[in-house]
Automatic annotation (TrEMBL):
Boundaries of every Beta-lactamase-related domain copy: 16-390
Record protein name field: Serine hydrolase domain-containing protein
Species whose genome carries this gene: Actinomadura fulvescens
GO molecular-function term, one example from the UniProt record: hydrolase activity
Source taxon at top rank: Bacteria
Keyword Transmembrane: no
Keywords: Hydrolase
SUPFAM superfamilies: beta-lactamase/transpeptidase-like (SSF56601)
Biological classification of the source: Bacteria, Bacillati, Actinomycetota, Actinomycetes, Streptosporangiales
Record bears the keyword Amino-acid biosynthesis: no
């Protein structure tokens, strides 16, 4: 395991200590963490291996798949067009997407597409991974579907379909894919990609599991935050396991009706190059933190728009992931299942990703943070690696 590299402001030394401890105790294969406070970079650390198979070290510019962290970036693209007057949150989407009105979906609003209320959490059939790169075809597929609940009457995590629903706002109003739009509008100078080119994929970290890396599973408790909240009650987690194993469950269909090829997992180059707007983002920790820095500073969205987007719009039983959840307009607000320690829970927002990655912003604290690991964590049970890093950051601000 390589030593931790990078810089850390002395006031944030506890962040470095947590990061070093995670690596030393075998809770990581490789990872990076970056923090901006009041617009100033205060933490930029990395260490470990980008690829355990070859021994390739993690470097400052090592990008990594961050899966659902992409949802916040896709939502930002859609909200930027809202700021420009392209549409209204409460209008019917059939105003500019007439095909979407089939099967009782004609009253669906953009706000419902962005807050997991659309009732289309899963594609109606198994879709090959290469077919999913055709975003127009995926949007058309969803437009033809019958919703699983009346739009706006319930919410459920649209694991993959969120990207094509929110992404259609961008396609219809900007005439480009989400990946192209974000590069043009606010990620031009960032190592942040939804639809990564070959040279980025060539230097990307490889996502792995304990078994693949030959690690001892004895320190799983160091990664899992299970039991920290009612959402992670063992009985609830057991229900999740049953739901995942049932091919007919909403959760199973949401995850697997279109998913990376089993042999590739989240490293699937077809998925990562295909730019699925909900889950195929590849980025470095410094770039993801810089995205949140610019959001918090008002450089991408109007402050009023960001506040609206990060305020809870729905909360309660999630029709897909079983546990209670909360969503704003594409962002997970403070009280959501995105486990954050106090005082982060008061005003933080962002999005987590399967495997343990997080992107976080805080308007009140003027804070931006990104944590990007390549050892798959316990996504539904929470992840203490991220939890303790966030905890240390907020302690430094106190």
């Amino acid at each position: 395991m390589s030593e931790v590299q990078g810089h850390c402001d002395p006031a944030f030394k506890a962040v470095r200590e947590v990061f070093e401890d995670n690596l030393a105790r075998g809770r990581e294969v490789g990872a990076a963490v970056a923090v901006h406070a009041a617009g100033r970079p205060v933490v930029d650390l990395w260490g470990g291996l980008a690829d355990h198979r070859t021994g390739r070290p993690w470097r400052h510019d090592t990008p990594c798949p961050v899966v659902s962290c992409a949802k916040a970036v896709t939502a930002t693209a859609a909200l930027l067009l809202l700021d420009r007057g392209a549409y209204e949150l409460d209008e019917s989407v059939v105003t500019w997407w007439p095909e979407y009105g089939a099967h009782g979906k004609e009253a669906t609003t953009p706000a419902q597409l962005l807050s997991h209320q659309a009732g289309l959490p899963a594609l109606g059939r198994r879709v090959p991974v290469d077919e999913a790169a055709d975003h127009g075809a995926m949007a058309a597929e969803l437009a033809r579907q019958v919703p699983e609940w009346e739009p706006g009457t319930a919410h459920g995590y649209h694991v993959v379909t969120f990207g094509w629903l929110a992404g259609e706002i961008v396609r219809r109003h900007a005439g480009s894919s989400v990946g192209t739009f974000i590069r043009r509008e606010f990620a031009r100078d960032l190592d942040l990609w939804i639809g990564a080119p070959p040279d980025v994929l060539a230097r990307a970290a490889r996502m792995t599991t304990e078994d693949e890396a030959g690690m001892t599973p004895g320190d799983a408790a160091g990664r899992s935050a299970a039991g920290r909240s009612a959402a992670y009650d063992p009985a609830v987690l057991a229900g999740l396991a049953v739901s995942l194993a049932d091919p007919g469950s909403t959760l199973n269909r949401a995850l697997y009706n279109v998913s990376p090829r089993e042999a590739e997992g989240f490293n699937d180059p077809v998925m990562l190059a295909g730019g699925w707007p909900a889950m195929s983002m590849v980025t470095t920790a410094p770039a993801l933190a810089a995205f949140y820095r610019d959001l918090v500073a008002g450089l991408i969205l109007r402050p009023a728009t960001l506040r609206e987007a990060t305020t809870r719009l729905v909360r309660g039983p999630d029709r897909v992931i079983v546990v209670d959840s909360a969503y704003g307009l594409g962002f997970q607000p403070a009280e959501s299942t995105f486990g954050r320690p106090l005082p982060a829970a008061a005003s933080a927002f962002g999005h987590s990703g399967a495997g343990g990655s997080i992107g976080l912003g805080d308007l009140e604290a003027e804070l931006a943070l990104a944590y990007v690991p390549n050892l798959m964590g316990h996504h539904f049970a929470g992840d203490r690696r991220a939890y303790h890093l966030v905890e240390a950051v907020y302690a430094a601000l106190a």
